[in-house]
Structure formats: C-alpha cells, structure tokens
Amino acid sequence: MPRRYQSSSSNKAATFFSATLLLWLVSVLFEIVFNKRRELLFIVAGVCFYQIANWVIRLCVSRDPLFVNTSVSLLHSAITSASVVSILVNQWFRTGFNRMFEHTQLVEGTWPWAYQAMCFSCGYFAYDQWDMLHYRLYTGSIPSILMHHLILLICFTRALYRHITINYLILTLICELHSIFLHVRKVRRLAGVRDAKSRVVKIEWILNWIMFVFARLVSHILITIKLIKDASKFEKGVEWPLALFGMAGMNLLNAFLGINLFNAFKKEKKPQQNNQKSRE
Question: Looking at residue 271, what is its pLDDT?
C-alpha cells in the first residue's frame, strides 16, 4: 500500500513501533559497549546478515518489498530450523533424551550454540520489524505482526541479558520448521504459481499440515504442559508467569493460524472444484 494512503492510526502505530525498536537498539548497544557483553554481537551479526540478504534479493531477484521480505523470512526459517534441530540432536547425544529436558537444564542451563542461535534469531526479528515499518508491510491500527515481533524482542533479549530460560526459548523455535512452508507458499503465490492441481503444490500442502501439527501445535502444547508441571520448581519472580503467558499467547496464535490455514486451503481448492464442475 502506498504510504500516502496510510491512515492516521496506522501512522501512530508506525511511530510507536519505530520508537520501541529504537529503544531496543539503544539497550542492546549499551549492553555491548558499556557492559562489555561481547556475546551479544551475534544480535548485530543477525541484523546485518538478514539486511544484506534483503539487498541481494532486491538486486538480483525482485524489487517487490513483500516478495523480498517473505524471501528473507524463508531464509531465516530455514537457518533457524537447521540450527535448532542440530542443537537438539547434539544435546541428545551428549546427555540423553530425558536429562536434556530436566527443569534445571531448560531454565538455568544453556546448550552449546543455543545462546548464539537465539542472538542471531533476535537480530532477524529486529531487521524484520524495521523492514515492515519502512515499507508499510502491515495493516491495522495495532498490527499483530509488529506486536508479535515486539513481544519476541522483549522476551528474547531479557533472557539473553540474564542467561535464563535460553533452552526453553530454543524449544519454542522448533515451530520455524512449519514457518518454512508458510513462507514457501507465500513466495510461490507471489511468483504466480497457484495451480492447486500441481503435484508440487499438493506435496507442499501435505508438508505444511504435517509441520503445523507436529512442529507448531503439538510442540507448543507440550512446552506449556511442561511449564505447568514444573511451576513449583521456578524461583519466585516473573519468569514463570511471563513464560506461561507467552506460551498461552503462542497457543492462541496457533489456533488462529490453523483456522486461517484451513480457510486458505479451501480457497485454493475451490477454483479447482469449480473448473471440474464447469467441464461436467
């Protein structure tokens, strides 16, 4: 949507989320420069990496802001999924399946490369927030996608600052396996490939649903159950209420996503059914 048609409420939203993003950036830079938190440089590396990917796609493939943004999101989902799976498999071989999901491991421990993966992914969310604000890739007076990114940035950076619940957050990122197919579908449609009868499209939908159920729906429900079961093991503070509130929000978003995905599936199948009726 061209910027001149943006409503005043949308402009207010842009101002608010731009200000919060700036405050977040100042906070991260303060930690790196003044508190000597060099490990947080991986956040900066993530921002730079995905912004460079944006420029490369814009230069070599397409200048459409939505296509570029979705392509970079697909890249992030692929990198994050590979990172999370490798981290989990490595820890499985190191400590065994049961021990890696102990409360102390999930809350106080940090699996090898989990901290760096969290930082890098945090850098993506900051980049993506800026890109959507810059090109107005959102709708509504309170854009859900911008609010989603803001909440993630707050939760992720708080955990990174305090070195706590890193492994829990890594587990939540397993949903990026499903995000791969969400972004593939969007890129495919933006590229004009919309034939529901295509074998590639059919396989894509099958994998989309499988990953939605196992990598997003089931995994987040299991994490929520684990949080409730281990409630008494958390120390007094905001960690447990914040984690439970965050997972409740994720499960609610997953329910809405499932409904939207089902509607999109029906809509994409409808033209095919209409074509078959017209032939009859």
Answer: 62
